[in-house]
Amino acid sequence: MTAERDLAALLRGARPTIAHPEVVFAIVPDASGLPALATVAEDEGVGVVLRREDAERLGLPVDGVGAWITLRVHSALDAVGLTAAVSTALADAGIACNVLAGFHHDHLIVPADRAAEALTLLAALGRPE
Predict the structure, then answer these.
(1) Helices and strands in the chain, H and E counts
(2) Nearest residue to 20 via CA among 59, 60, 49
């Protein structure tokens, strides 16, 4: 799979899908042993993204529930404009978005109750006007 750099091709190939319908963010001192979907080391602790049911089972506080959307296109790490395009489209619709960049794909956490709307907006970015 070749990494894509062209913004128009990235948007056409995004194919957004809901990877995890209900996720939450939590901060923990140590993420080892946790079923984390993603981690970010910060000065305040380790930020983790977990499935909602895992966080609740572990007794971690749940402050809001998001849906994890994956853009299926293989975006190059040095591709320019994809994050701006998707976050702007969602912001224009009043949808909050947290972006996680992986090696092969970009991932978005949006409010779970607006996930279907976010998918529609993201899919429309790749269609010609």
Answers:
(1) 4, 6
(2) 49
Q: How far apart are CA 82 and CA 44, in angstroms?
A: 29
Of 74, 49, 72, 76, which Cα lies nearest the Cα of 62?
Answer: 49
C-alpha 15/C-alpha 45 separation (Å) is 33
Model's pTM, two decimal places?
A: 0.94
Q: How far apart are CA 33 and CA 98, in angstroms?
A: 24
Distances in whole angstroms, Cα of residue 125 to Cα of each of 5, 10, 46, 102, 111 = 16, 10, 33, 21, 19
- Helix 82-92 to helix 115-125 angle, to the nearest 10 degrees? 130
pLDDT tens, per residue, the chain with 129 residues: 789 999 999 999 999 999 999 999 999 999 999 999 999 999 989 999 999 999 999 999 887 999 999 999 999 999 999 999 999 999 999 999 999 999 999 999 999 999 999 999 999 998 876
For the chain, domains (ranges, CATH) are 7-125 (3.30.2130.10)
